[in-house]
Automatic annotation (TrEMBL):
Ranges of biased composition (kind: Basic and acidic residues): 286-300
Gene Ontology BP annotations: ATP synthesis coupled electron transport
Pfam (any one): COX2
Keyword list, A-Z: Cell membrane, Electron transport, Lipoprotein, Membrane, Oxidoreductase, Palmitate, Respiratory chain, Signal, Transmembrane, Transmembrane helix, Transport
EC number: 1.10.3.-
PANTHER family reported in the protein's UniProt record: CYTOCHROME BO(3) UBIQUINOL OXIDASE SUBUNIT 2, CYTOCHROME C OXIDASE, SUBUNIT II
Name assigned to this protein: Quinol oxidase subunit 2
InterPro entries: CcO_II, CcO_II-like_C, COX_ARM, Cupredoxin, CuRO_UO_II, Cyt_c_oxidase_su2_TM_dom, Cyt_c_oxidase_su2_TM_sf, Cyt_o_ubiquinol_oxidase_su2
Entry-linked PROSITE patterns: COX2_CUA, COX2_TM, PROKAR_LIPOPROTEIN
Species name: Paenibacillus baekrokdamisoli
Polar residues bias locations: 334-344
Biological classification of the source: Bacteria, Bacillati, Bacillota, Bacilli, Bacillales
Transmembrane spans: 44-70, 91-112
Length: 344
């Protein structure tokens, strides 16, 4: 009996220590639960709602499981009722089917509502800032098309202003993630994905690549520096005055698999982002805005060595060949039709 008591006490101690270790990370510094922008706040509320709804199912199940183990334990003095032929209860079936269905319905509604709301371009009085992001091995390239500057492994944004990130990859598929500002979005070769984020106040936020992409994937980190609009404008002017420029040869070198420190470029080749997208297949993620059309989709750049004109000519040649094949087949059918008419 004493051994059983000591063993039980040891198990409780181990359980308590494990619980303390697990809860040690659940403080205010845990970035997912420290939202600093409207997108992250919406997703944070959805996470909390999901936890509460799941707890409505999980906690009673765990409690009932513990009660059943204790109530129907195999001991000589246990007087719990024993019903070997019991197999039906309308009340219990309604509870264990009805409650999960209602919870899934509620969770599905709020998830779909927030997902579609966050995918749409926000309606704001201020003009959003455009930033084009390319994931490389093992670094991040940020391009500012309106300012014609570029950075590596860090990005500046004005606080309180919506930022439209256009994402692609010139390396294996990755995932762009700034936990305190919003959820992650894939970067894929041949695709230009869309992500809207905003930082409500100045600060320095951690960003990372959330996908495994090779031996140095742990170095796919970057910093997002949010600052007042005036400070952002000063930073842009400072970058434009720097001598370091990103050339086509420089980009090819940058795209090679390697780690990189933070870099700044006062300019970069025109159409670089679109050329990377089209080089790997070419496609733009459709935004959920019927009144907006991306002008970049109208004149894609082809880096494969074959121009759009050549591609169209090739397609026309294929169509002509198909028409010739159809004419040949029709001519082969005519004698059979004539013979049939003569027999008639």
């Amino acid at each position: 009996m004493k051994k059983s008591t000591k063993l039980r006490g040891l198990m409780l101690l181990i359980t308590g220590l494990c619980t303390m270790v697990l809860l040690a990370g659940c403080d205010s510094k845990y970035v997912v639960f420290d939202p600093q922008g409207p997108v992250a706040q919406t997703q944070y509320r959805l996470i909390i709602l999901s936890v509460i709804l799941c707890a409505i199912v999980v906690i009673p199940v765990l409690g009932i499981t513990a009660f059943i183990i204790w109530r129907y334990r195999d001991t000589p003095d246990n007087k719990a009722p024993y019903k070997p032929h019991w197999d039906d209860s309308k009340v219990l079936e309604i509870l264990w089917w009805g409650i999960p269905i209602v919870i899934i319905g509620i969770l599905g509604y709020f998830t779909a509502r927030d997902t579609y709301a966050l995918a749409r371009p926000p309606v704001t009085d201020s003009k959003p800032i455009e930033i084009q992001v390319t994931s490389l091995d093992w670094k991040w390239l940020f391009q500012y098309p309106d300012q014609n500057i570029a950075t590596v492994n860090y990005v500046h944004i004005p606080a309180g202003v919506q930022v439209h990130f256009e994402l692609t990859s010139d390396a294996p598929m990755n995932s762009f993630w700034v936990p305190q500002l919003g959820g992650q979005e894939y970067t894929m070769p041949g695709m230009a994905m869309s992500l809207w984020l905003q930082a409500d106040k100045p600060g320095k936020y951690y960003g990372t690549g959330a996908n495994f992409s090779g031996k140095e994937f742990a170095h796919m980190r970057f910093n997002v520096i949010s600052e007042p609009q005036a400070d952002f404008n000063k930073w842009v002017d400072t970058v434009k005055k720097s001598a370091n420029q990103l050339t086509e040869a420089g980009y090819k070198k940058l795209a090679l698999p390697s780690k990189s420190e933070e870099q700044t470029f006062s300019s970069y080749p025109a159409g670089l982002f679109d050329s990377v997208v089209n080089k790997n297949g070419g496609g733009h993620h459709m935004q959920m805005d019927d009144n907006k059309q991306d002008s970049k989709d109208q004149k894609p750049v082809d880096n494969s060595g074959t121009t759009n004109k050549d591609s169209n000519s090739h397609n026309m040649n294929n169509m002509n060949m198909n028409m010739n094949d159809m004419s040949h087949d029709m001519s082969n059918m005519e004698p059979d039709q004539t013979t049939t008419n003569q027999k008639q």
